[in-house]
Amino acid sequence: MNLSNHxxxxxxxxxxxxxxxxxxxxxxxxxYRIVAFDTDSAALQAAVTDGTVSIPVYELNEAFSExxxxxxxxxxxxxxxxxxxLKKWRKPSCILTDVGSVKTDIYQAVxxxxxxxxxxxxxxxxxxxxSGYEAANDHLxxxxxxxxxxxxxxxxxxxxxxxxxxxxxxxxxxxxSPARHDQTTAYxxxxxxxxxxxxxxxxxxxxxxxxxxxxxxxGGFKDITRIASSNPIIWEHILLSNAANIIAGLExxxxxxxxxxxxxxxxxxxxxxxxxxxxxxxxxSIPNNATGVIRMNFEIFVDIPDEPGAISGVIDKIGMAGIxxxxxxxxxxxxxxxxxxxxxxxxxxxxxxxxxxxxxxxxTVYER
Length: 368
Description:
By secondary structure, the protein is of the alpha/beta class. The protein folds into three domains: 8-176, 3-Layer(aba) Sandwich (Rossmann fold), CATH 3.40.50; 182-284, 6-phosphogluconate dehydrogenase C-terminal like domain (6-phosphogluconate dehydrogenase C-terminal fold, Orthogonal Bundle), CATH 1.10.3660.10; 298-367, Alpha-Beta Plaits, CATH 3.30.70.260. Helix content is 46%, strand content 15%. It has helices spanning 16-28, 41-49, 76-89, 104-112, 156-168, 178-205, 212-216, 219-224, 232-241, 243-265, 269-284, 310-320, 348-360, and strands at 8-12, 33-37, 55-57, 69-72, 95-98, 120-124, 145-150, 172-175, 298-302, 325-330, 341-345, 365-367. The chain has a five-stranded parallel beta sheet. It has a four-stranded antiparallel beta sheet with strand order 10-11-9-12, covered by helices on one side. A three-stranded mixed beta sheet has the order 6-7-8, covered by helices on one side. Strand 7 (145-150), helix 5 and strand 8 form a beta-alpha-beta unit. The longest helix is centred in the middle third of the chain and has 28 residues, at 178-205. The protein is globular.
């Protein structure tokens, strides 16, 4: 984008998402001014110290009056509360945007505040098990899908300009209506989180006093329930904010489960086969090279002998190549996976490079 060096971007909240977008802007547009507010003064100071933030704001004030874009990156109900304050200071040409995974509540607030002509919602489909400014990085949204959800009264040229700005930061924009966005994220993110948590609770309830279920719940079970480790407070807010879509999807899911229960009762082999076959085909058609709503695991599995030094030999080779590991462990339950040693990484490039390195060294490596 060919914008003035005085172009100014504001941030309300400098956590993982806000901090990462701010860092991306600083890297790609070093002359832009970045104004930021956060209730965490340590995060603000860190952003000033590393050169990301030009103007730190410790109390919401008129410092945001010069902003061309303002990103609302606090939890959704806090963002709603900040709207009325920003309304006083926002210059007429400023576009307000957010990064929340639910749009219904904030769009209702935007409408009530009379701000629908300047609000372009956003939702970068990224995440991490880490949080806060210390976890932010300037490549987080790169090659990630980024929903753009403009209100119907925003000037189309403004929407195009904002899409270009987000694409300049490396993301892949998808323009959706707020209502369609909430329905989509309910099915591909919110409901899967509920299902994963219920699967964990089911196994927990059926565990024995020795905790054998927990001991054996590795491999495939741990993979499909990984998202059950998400922050319960965040998910409480999401479920209540997107209630209608989530309830509708769960009711459909319950109906589908009942159908498979009935098929098992009547030993309907055709229905059971189709149930798994259709799921297999659709799941296999999902691309592996893009970031989705649910954070990906970047893992490889390596066959190693049960002998002293076997694990350190693998780790040393990866370390000598300058590749950082995230975690590793022995897979005792390999019912749904191959390879004894399970190694996870922070990104796909590191996983792929390690797989190639170990294969060249004669190891058998499996990737998923």
